[in-house]
Design brief:
alpha+beta; Zincin-like; 3 domains; five-stranded mixed β-sheet; four-stranded antiparallel β-sheet; transmembrane; membrane
């Protein structure tokens, strides 16, 4: 039997437990805050990392002074390499103006900035590009790159081997052996072009980047992935008289044997000698076909090697109805190589009909603005329709 003194109601018991819990909570709170009031901890804030722009400007000034003074730095950092390249090439009138940070500063203090740089290479006009320049936490230069649509000059993109003669300048990102190879190709190309046309004061500049042409030419990725070489103005313009350089794609030409590589360089040298990139008067088939004619003039390679692609195409689909136009020479064309072969064979047909000098005269006359039909009638006694018919017959006969 329960006595009155031993009986405790359930609600009273729960209340007593709650009081104890609340007292314990208060004690814990007091122990945590050191007093009677709870204070939330202050969140930690990461320190703000700022770009050392003064250090960056000082580094750019050092680079400019090194080029102007002809310094020979010992380091292998990007700025020292650029100074050595510039001195070897003969770069002058260098300026570098810090514009602004291009991206956020990294936690380690490094960042990339937009920098306007200008320079002048021998025989070229002054060039200006807004480039991306990397800096470390102390403002030292860590690298150069091209902004979208701008050209990164070879002398700022890594170590360069330089070879020069009285008529050639060759800039190569590669070994001394590779540079010697391109120097020989360039010298031979000048000689081969001069055997066909007048080139009284030859100047052939070859630029050979380590990988691809897109950065050097300010082009979209993949635009020149299948192109062995390209001749273009140094500033990307189409103004007549602007100096021309030949940019070589090592990834493509490196797989060619010596005769094949020579054909490529002589082809481009022909463009350089005749200002082909800035002269839009000639039909494209004549521009490319003539350059291949000069390059293949003394070759002993069989037609299966020099025109294998177009012959295979003719065997499958028959001869094309018309001479290739500008659209067919697009670098992304499915039959890109075949179009060059077809244009070359058109020039071969002309030489067979009237001789080499007649072809040279046609090239020069159309370059001066004389209409193709008139120049053909004057030099060969027939017009474009007859040329096309003879060319188609030649293709069909070659494909048998």
């Amino acid at each position: 039997m329960r006595t009155v003194g031993s009986l405790v109601s359930r609600p009273a018991l729960i209340g007593a437990v709650l009081v104890v819990v609340m007292l314990l909570a208060g004690f814990v709170g007091w122990r945590l805050t050191g007093g009677g009031e709870y204070v939330a901890p202050t969140p930690s804030i990461a320190p703000v990392v700022r770009a050392d722009t003064e250090g960056a400007r000082a580094s750019l000034d050092e680079l400019v002074d090194g080029v102007r003074e002809g310094a020979e730095p010992d380091g292998e950092d990007p700025a020292s390499v650029a100074v050595r390249n510039a001195n070897a090439i003969g770069i002058e009138d260098v300026t570098a103006r810090y514009v602004a940070e291009a991206d956020n500063v990294e936690p380690n203090g490094s960042w990339t900035a937009d920098v306007e740089m200008s320079w002048r290479a021998p025989g070229d006009p002054a060039l200006t590009e807004e480039l991306k320049v990397g800096f470390d936490a102390d403002g030292a230069i860590t690298g150069f790159s091209a902004a979208q649509g701008t050209r990164l000059p070879l002398w700022l993109s890594g170590p360069v081997e330089v070879r020069r003669t009285g008529s050639t300048l060759v800039l190569v990102q590669g070994s001394a052996e590779v540079a010697d190879r391109y120097a020989e190709l360039a010298a031979t190309a000048v000689d081969e072009v001069r055997e066909v046309i007048s080139w009284d004061d030859p100047r052939l500049v070859l630029e050979v980047p380590a990988a691809g042409l897109e950065s050097a030419l300010g082009a979209q990725p993949g635009a020149y992935s299948a192109v062995a070489a390209v001749t273009a103005t140094v500033d990307g313009s189409t103004k007549a008289g602007t100096p021309l350089h030949v940019w070589v794609n090592q990834g493509v030409i490196g797989d060619l044997d010596a005769p094949g590589a020579q054909v490529v360089i002589t082809h481009e040298a022909t463009h350089a000698a005749t200002d082909a990139p800035t002269n839009t008067r000639r039909p494209m088939w004549l521009v490319e076909g003539f350059a291949d004619y000069v390059a293949l003039r003394d070759t002993e390679l069989p037609l299966s090697k020099t025109a294998g692609q177009i012959i295979a195409q003719v065997r499958e689909n028959g001869a094309p109805e018309k001479l290739p136009g500008t659209a067919e020479f697009n670098t992304r064309s499915e039959h890109f190589g075949a179009e060059y072969e077809a244009a070359w064979l058109a020039c071969e047909v002309l030489v067979e009909a009237g001789g080499e000098q007649a072809l040279v005269d046609l090239y020069e006359e159309t370059g001066r603005g004389i209409a193709l039909e008139k120049a053909l009638q004057s030099g060969f006694g027939f017009g474009e329709d007859e040329l096309t018919a003879r060319w188609r017959t030649h293709l069909s006969d070659s494909a048998k």
